[in-house]
Design a protein that fits this description.
272 residues; alpha/beta; serine acetyltransferase, domain 1; 2 domains; 5-stranded parallel β-sheet; 9 helices; 14% strand; repeat; LbH_SAT
Amino acid sequence: MAAPHPKPTELDPVWQRIRQEATAAIDAEPLMGGLVHATILHHQTFENALAYRVALKLASAEMSEQILREIADDAYARAPDLTAAARADLTAVFERDPACHRFMQPLLYFKGYQAIQAYRLGHWLWEQGRKDIAYFIQMRVSEIFGVDIHPNALVGRGIMIDHAHSIVIGETAVVGDNVSMLHSVTLGGTGKEDDDRHPKIEDGVLIGAGAKVLGNIRIGHCSRIAAGSVVLHEVPPCKTVAGVPARIVGEAGCDQPSLSMDHLIRSGSVGP
C-alpha cells in the first residue's frame, strides 16, 4: 500500500517556506502569478508540486504530461525516499549556490536541480524493471536540460550541480552524498568494456567545471578536483588534484570542500 503524503503544510517546513516565497513573488511581480500558482500554490504538498514540475518539463508529443504526472505521483507515493532526497538537494542548492536566494528558485528555475529530480524518477523506474520508460526519461533530461545521467547510476542525497550544462554521468558511476559539481563535468569510462567502468565519487567531493573523471576509479571523500582536470587514477581522501592528467597538488583545504565551494588552489598548498 502506498504511503500517504503529509497533508498539513505546517508539518513540512520546506514546503511551507516555498509557499510563502511564492506568495511574496506574486506580490512583487503579478505577471508571474500564472506560473507560480500552477507550479506551487495550486498544490497541497511538495510531492504534488515536484511531480507536476518534472512532468511538465519532460512531456513531449511522444509522452504526455498526464502520463508522466501519473508515473511521478505513483513513484513519490510508493518511494518517499525520492522526495526526501529532493528536499536534501534543494537545501544543498540553497546553502551552496550564492545565486540562490529562495527555496523556490531551484524548483522553478534551476535545471541542475530539476534534472537530478527527473533522474531520480528514472532510476526508480529502472529499479522497478521499467527500463524503457527510464531510458525515455534519460533521453528527455538530456534533450531538455543538457544533462545525461544513466538511470542505472547511483546518486546520493544533497547533490548540487551548478549551471549543469553538459553533465555526463555513466551507467556504473556512483556519486555519494553532499557532492557538488559544476558544468561540463564527465564521470565516464575509458573504453568499450561492458562492466563496472565508471568512477566512484565518495561523500563531500567538489568537482570543478569541465573536469573529466574517467574509468573505474575511486575519488576519496572530501577531496577536490580542479576545473579542467582529467583524472585517470584514484584520489585519496581530503586531497586536491589538478592538471591533465591530474596529480595531487595539496590538501583539500577544508573539512567539507563540497559545502564551502572553494575552488582556489592557494600558494603553499602545492606539493612536489
